[in-house]
Amino acid sequence: MRTLTRRLLLPGLTALALAGTGCSAPPPTAAAGPGSAVTPSSAVDGTQQLEVNAAPQGSAAPTPLARTRTGAGQPEKSSLKVASYDRASGRAVIAAAPQGHTAKPSRSPAPGKPVDKPVAVGDVIASAPAPGAPDGLLAKVTEVVGRTERGTEVKTAATTLSSVLKDDRANGKVAVDPASVSVMPLMKGVTFSWAKSQGVRFGPQGAKLPLGDLRLDVNAAVDTAKDAPASAAASVSGFVQLAPQVEFSYDGAKNGGIGPSSAFLGMSGDWSSRWALKGRAAVSTGAPRRIPFAKLHSAPVIQVGPVPVVVNLDLTCYVQVEADGQVTLDVQQDVKGDFRVGGSYAAGKGWAPVSASAVHSTPVNAKVSAAGKVKGALGAEASVGLYGAVGVTADFAPYLRGEATAEAAASSDGKAAASASWAVYGGFDLSGRLDFHLSVFGTPVIEHRIPLGTLHREWDLAKGHVQR
């Protein structure tokens, strides 16, 4: 069962990658590694091209926080931190970072002025996960309540990235640290392995993985037909392996409008999987039964210049089987490919879904006995967003399908004939949507969810015919 869950989860991540069709986003820059320096370059008009990097990790690293002061044009790194936050009231306590962890300001203060002024009304704060704000905080200070023993208490209101990034630009990819991914198995038989870029490995398959990859293995039983022999017990097993990256771009050039001129949020990477469907599955009545087997969550922090942007990735993997209880199947396939999925915004055109994928499938073995039909899917519901709000949702279900037919005929002269044919197919179904929470970029609010459209692809794995 552990092996089955891992294999199912990774196909689910693949699902996210394939979500929808649409416009292309601006070309991304090379992936940035953890700890890369933030070195924005300034343009003649005073705007900046901000680097996109992974935020420093580890207990010794301070919680990143950036602020755009009232009347100031561009964001800057702050030596302050969010000591606590209450989502219900919007109140936060802003305090100085612990001694020894004080962040160096990204701009040199004017002579005679303090390095970091106290927080004031109108300031915009962007923080990595903090007490009371597990998905980070992006807010504007609306009132300074007063000083407390823990720091300065303020009232805040939700705001957008355009209020902190202003007219600056950013474009890049950041690899998701496999060690930051949490997995909650929902059934027995799920195992999780990863290999970190620093050489740290975890799980039974960790030593076999390329650096930066994560893998889920699953081996689980599904309902078997009542009249099936013990040798025909139904099961799904396999693994999926993924090296995910977060893609982020923002262009604050207004061109006379409100909000950015373009933006993109999505995920991309390479993936591979091998999975098998065996036995005689029980007959399914009504809608196919969906059985979740694992949940995956990660909240990587990416540094867009001095600004910490918290990306939330969630995935629920499931098994789904449709069968008439007659056919016995034994099929396995290898699938490899790359993917890119997300939402792309252009001023005057709005948001559009983006997806691209190259898929290569290889049948390992295939066998079908008796007449009937069966279809088994290892799928996932996946979402990606910012600061805890869902922006893009996709449901991706790679599947194996088998069918067999048998015919017999006889005549009065004693002659008889029989024929049988069988076929096994691989494929995937994809659907999803763009959510209104993408307006966190500062773009116009999406009045309704934008469907990604339904994508269906299928290919032959093996087939045969017998005539007697």
Structure description:
With 468 residues, the protein is mostly beta strands. The chain contains 2 helices and 28 strands. It is elongated and about 95 Å long.
How would you summarize what this structure contains?
The chain is mainly β and 468 residues long.
| Global structural class | mainly beta
Q: What kind of oligomer do you see?
A: single chain
Mean pLDDT, to the nearest integer, reads 74
Counted beta strands: 28
Element-level helix/strand string: HEEEEEEEEEEEHEEEEEEEEEEEEEEEEE
Total helical elements: 2
Q: Cα distance, first to last residue?
A: 42 Å
Task: Specify the overall morphology.
Answer: elongated
Strand content: over 45%
Helix and strand topology:
Layout: H1 2-17, E1 31-32, E2 41-42, E3 48-50, E4 52-54, E5 65-68, E6 76-77, E7 80-86, E8 91-96, E9 124-127, E10 137-147, E11 152-158, H2 162-165, E12 169-175, E13 182-185, E14 190-195, E15 201-202, E16 214-221, E17 235-251, E18 262-279, E19 289-298, E20 301-304, E21 307-323, E22 328-346, E23 350-369, E24 372-386, E25 389-410, E26 416-434, E27 450-451, E28 455-467
Parallel strand pairs: 1-12, 3-12
Antiparallel strand pairs: 2-3, 4-20, 5-6, 5-9, 7-8, 8-11, 9-10, 10-11, 12-17, 13-19, 14-15, 14-16, 16-17, 17-18, 18-22, 19-21, 20-21, 21-24, 22-23, 24-25, 25-26, 26-27, 26-28
Keyphrases for this structure?
eleven-stranded mixed beta sheet, 2 helices
